[in-house]
Write a structure and sequence with these properties.
This protein is of the alpha/beta class and 535 residues long. Helices cover 45% and strands 14% of the residues.
């Protein structure tokens, strides 16, 4: 089989561990002759066995023929000396994550390979610029960051060091494509794209847990149902390994000189100290007393209630709730938005206040609702950018007020998040359970906190993507590709931001920033610019 890459004929892989053997297999399957070297004979042997076993499984699953698998295996040449790598055109280093070890290897490679050879590292967290500095031709050094397991994960981050030449980047992109991977070019910055932009997914989930906003199970459930994620943040941490996830967070935090956005959480450190490292163990956090099961039972009688919904607030949220209500046969008594203003209906049995951005307007809306509605009628108000506790101080009858997470397009998910204040009545809570049920949504009661669960996690992801774009780490479309392929997110953060609207994302970040008073939540300047432009 001829290789699809014009420049590269022989690839060498250093390290026959999890990543090295996987990369060697991918390269051999793409038709390259592969030299695989490991300092440890047993590791080299195990690496070959891993490739053999993987190919065998592919034959069993009828993904390839016996002949193709045998030919690929015959193209992998195990070697026990680094000097055997001298004829390589392209080297992919995948030894332990230790800068001293990589330094020795790159210094040696620089002496034995031809001056045209490209030397790449699969490092997850070390600086490519620093690795390149150990070689004679730093312009030929690049990051080639595969994801685990390499045969299955399509993404390769091609990391451009400070001195990496355009030719080296172009050849690496071409090589990744000929290995049937999706390369995404990014700048050499801590965590590259995926390991950086994904930090808030875990970090905010841990913060929410630590603040008692919701339990592990509830956070996972909300994120999966609301955002259509395949796995919740805790399930994903469990899969990756708590220790690995903690190490990546610490490394990114340290390399960014203790930037508060990346600060690790003590819950995670304690889990590592306690040896609860992942899949085999559970988080073991009790469900909170606001368990949805209990609430669902009490919501059985929703059929009997005749609801007439009054909707006020900002578009497009008003339109989304209106069309969902009408689609589910719930009468919409009146809506008020910028386009059409109607007299508020006195006949409404539930009112929705959907303002996130203009909080003065929100106050006015709540006061108008109080004037027109009898005191018993519940008001379900977006608490995405202001707590229910604060809103309760604006109204005369706080017992009828309850909060909700509301961001444009999130309603399309299967979940509604509610938050009560200490003064919210049981009847009001029951009313919104009934409402969610009649919309065909699952729901969760979380503790009162701006952004609740999904808006806070999602907007923090978008904010981090905006910081990364601003710093020139990668373009928005590449960040989206990397996040979809590298983490299996259903959408990239930029796609999300465009659907939700940057102005709503900014409102959530500003609310978190004001509420916690922490730099961690400061909105990225690019987020502010995009919100101002209305993009
Ligand atoms: P691993 O422990 O499975 O394998 C490392 C291999 O390197 C071992 O077989 C070891 O014998 C070999 N080795 C050690 N010293 C060597 C030397 N001097 N010369 C040659 N071989 C040597 O580790 P891994 O998980 O495959 O990680 C390898 C690299 O890939 C690291 O830089 C890591 O950050 C990166 N990475 C790992 C993952 C992952 O999920 N495991 C994902 C992406 C990137």
């Amino acid at each position: 089989m001829s290789t699809a890459n014009s420049m590269v004929k022989t690839i060498s892989v250093i390290g026959a561990g999890t990543m090295g053997s996987g990369i060697a297999e991918v390269a051999a399957l793409a038709g390259f002759e592969v030299i695989m070297y490991d300092v440890n004979d047993e590791a080299l042997h195990k690496g070959m066995e891993r490739i053999r076993g993987d190919l065998k499984r592919s034959i069993e699953k009828q993904k390839m023929t016996d002949d193709d698998a045998s030919a690929a295996l015959a193209r992998v040449h195990p070697r026990a000396s680094l000097d055997d790598l001298a004829p390589s055109d392209f080297v992919i280093e995948a030894v332990l994550e230790d800068i001293e070890l990589k330094k020795k290897i790159f210094q040696h490679l620089s002496n034995i390979t031809s001056s045209n050879a490209i030397l790449s590292s699969n490092t997850s967290s070390l600086s490519i610029t620093s690795i390149a500095s150990f070689t004679k031709k730093p312009e030929n050094v690049v990051g080639m960051h595969f994801f685990n397991p390499p045969p299955l994960m399509r993404l390769v981050e091609v990391v451009r060091g400070r001195q990496t030449s355009d030719e080296t980047v172009a050849a690496t992109v071409e090589l990744a494509r000929s290995m049937k991977k999706e390369p995404v070019v990014c700048k050499d910055t801590p965590g590259f794209i995926v390991n950086r932009v994904a930090r808030p997914f875990y970090g905010e989930a841990l913060r929410l847990l630590g603040e008692g906003v919701a339990s592990v199970e509830e956070i996972d459930r909300i994120v999966k149902l609301s955002g259509d994620f395949k796995m919740g943040p805790f399930e994903l941490m469990d899969l990756i390994g708590i220790d690995v996830n903690y190490a990546v967070t610490k490394s990114v935090y340290e390399q960014f000189f203790h930037e508060p956005r990346f600060r690790p959480h003590s819950i995670q450190r304690q889990m590592v100290e306690a040896g609860t490292l992942g899949r085999k163990t559970t988080f073991n956090v009790e469900r909170s007393e606001t368990s949805c099961r209990r609430i669902l039972r009490s919501a059985q009688n929703f059929e009997m209630m005749q609801k007439k919904i009054l909707i006020v607030g900002e578009s497009p949220l008003v339109q989304e709730y209106e069309s969902l209500c009408e689609g589910k046969g719930l009468a919409v008594a009146a809506t008020v938005n910028q386009k059409k203003t109607k007299t508020l209906s006195k006949s409404a049995t539930l009112a929705l206040e959907l303002t996130n951005i203009n909080l003065e307007e929100k106050k006015r809306n709540l006061s108008r609702l109080e004037k027109v509605l009898s005191p018993k009628i519940p008001i379900l108000s977006s608490s995405t950018t202001v707590t229910v506790a604060e809103q309760a101080t604006w109204v005369k009858h706080p017992e009828r007020l309850i909060g909700m997470g509301a961001l444009p397009t999130l309603l399309a998910g299967g979940m509604m998040e509610f938050a009560a204040s200490r003064r919210t009545s049981v009847e009001t809570k029951h009313s919104v359970e009934v409402f969610a049920k009649s919309l065909g949504k699952e729901f969760a009661f979380v503790h009162d906190s701006p952004g609740l669960v999904m808006p806070r996690i999602l907007c923090s992801l978008v904010n981090e993507a905006c910081f990364a774009m601003m710093e020139g780490v990668a373009e928005g479309k590449d960040i989206d590709t990397a996040m979809r392929l590298g983490t299996n997110y259903p959408n990239g953060p930029v796609e999300w931001a465009e659907r939700i609207g940057y102005v709503h994302v900014l409102a959530v970040m500003n609310a978190l920033h004001d509420y916690f008073g922490e730099d961690r939540y400061r909105p990225a300047p690019m987020l502010q610019t995009k919100a101002l432009r209305g993009s």
